[in-house]
Amino acid sequence: MDADTILRIRPMLTEYLHEFDRCMGRITNLAHLRTYVSGQLGDLDRKSVEPMADAAGVPPRTLQEFLSMLKWDDQAARDQVQFRVARRHAHPDSVGVIDETSFHKQGNKTACVQRQWCGSRGKKENCVVSVHLGYVAGDFHTLIDGDLFLPEETWHGNRERCRTVGIPDDVVYRAKWKIALEQVQRALGNGLRFSWLTFDEGYGGKPPFLRGLDSLGQNYVAEIPVSFVGWTKPPEVLYREHSRNKGRRRRKFPCLKVRNTPAVEVRNILTWSPILRKVSWQPYRVKDGAKGPMVWEAKRIAFWIKDENGMPSRSHHLMVTRNVLKPDEVKFFLSNAPESTPTEVLLLVAFSRWRIERLFQDSKTELGMDHFEVRKYPSIVRHLILTCISHLFLAEFWLAHRGKKFGVDRLPGTQGYASPDPGMDLRRSLLSPAGRIDRGAIGHNAGAQCCDSLLASQANSQAITRNRDMVEKHPHLQVATMLAL
């Protein structure tokens, strides 16, 4: 947005930023916060410290010190973002989306930089990678957390190098799925509730991560790699020694019976499983893309994965999908949702992951999330948190001033979309048939999102999904283009 627009919305922005007063401490830090957020919301070509400081008429050194040296509680600021989302945007159909993004950087002096896969470039490059948690509730979506990934070999094992860029000794290597699990735990502790979580195979392929979500009572729909293993029929388990085997080498119990079908990869299940072969493909129009409707076929069966001891877990959903126009394009999804959850609900969640790509796109193009030129670890972490603050204001402002609301005129079904049934209550919860695993409130602001969707009857399962999250052409979060003040 331009300077004139910033001036006209300044009272709203000032009121919004007052929520972070206690995190800033000194009044000078409050002024720096306004300068930084205003700069990210502005129309500068480059939203790094120096251009933002020049536009605000303050010395660049002051903003650099705000990121690196001045004392203010960045972790409390991130928590305040989550408190506000929990308080103002609680939704019975909220979806949490986990993904990572990368920032291309030259040289080797920036914290956590190394040559690795750079998604923004589509190849291996010198870059910094961060893991993020996004929150989606109807037409509203925002980033609520972000953390840097510390590479193991090039950084974790060289503490002297870490100290030169301000990485504390207690910040060690954590797998990306561990960072994501900590972010989910933190969000739940701050009062946020997710009806669902969804994420790609980089996280869905990690059974410890899935078990961690199970222990939190969190429903998820995870894309899994083709090499993911499990059983389509639960193997038999021995819990004690059989009498005729006494005297032989003792085994640890429980254990699998010797004559069991071994766990197999899901790609082989698609090719050879007689159980899956008996299930017919059903077409679903999963979303409207830039080039028209995207139709996928899907089938699902019960699936048992290995627990930490190699034993079969409880039953999960294995959903196999393929692109109708490109039958060789096949995706596998795993869910721990209740057995009665309709397939269209699982598909709706599975194909809503594009929303975090839009969050990254908006944060980078509109807010300059990838424009940072600082190198120290604390400065980059603070920049990511400040971007969450800016994005939340942008998302709320857009939601309040978007003008025409998105209508509901189609319902997904097994044969595509049909017009709404005149007798259907379109106010009913989008994902209510899935139910939720009951869990108690956790941590601060625990009552902010305490309303769980009730499990609807199977008879209503074909008339439950509204097409709010399915349209891929979600407008960019731009303020200036739709303001009429």
Structural description of this entry:
By secondary structure, this protein is of the alpha+beta class. The chain folds into 2 domains: 3-200 and 355-401, no CATH class; 222-348, no CATH class. It has 16 helices and 16 strands. Strand 15 and strand 16 (416-418) form a beta hairpin. Helix 6 runs parallel beside helix 16. The longest helix has 25 residues, at 377-401. The chain is globular, with a radius of gyration of 24 Å. The chain starts with a helix and ends in a 67-residue tail after the last strand.
Question: Brief overview, please?
Answer:
With 485 residues, this protein is α+β, with helices and mostly antiparallel strands. The protein has helices at residues 3-17, 21-24, 27-41, 49-56, 60-68, 74-88, 152-156, 159-164, 176-189, 201-204, 207-215, 266-272, 274-277, 343-350, 354-365, 377-401; strands at residues 95-104, 114-118, 123-137, 140-148, 196-199, 220-224, 229-230, 237-238, 255-256, 264-265, 282-289, 292-303, 316-323, 330-335, 411-413, 416-418.
Proportion of residues in extended strands: 15-25%
Mean pLDDT: 81
* Category from helices, strands and their pairing: alpha+beta
Low-confidence stretches: 404-473, 479-485
Shape: globular
* Number of discrete helical segments: 16
The helical percent reads 25-40%
Specify the biggest β-sheet: 10 strands, mixed
Count of distinct structural domains: 2
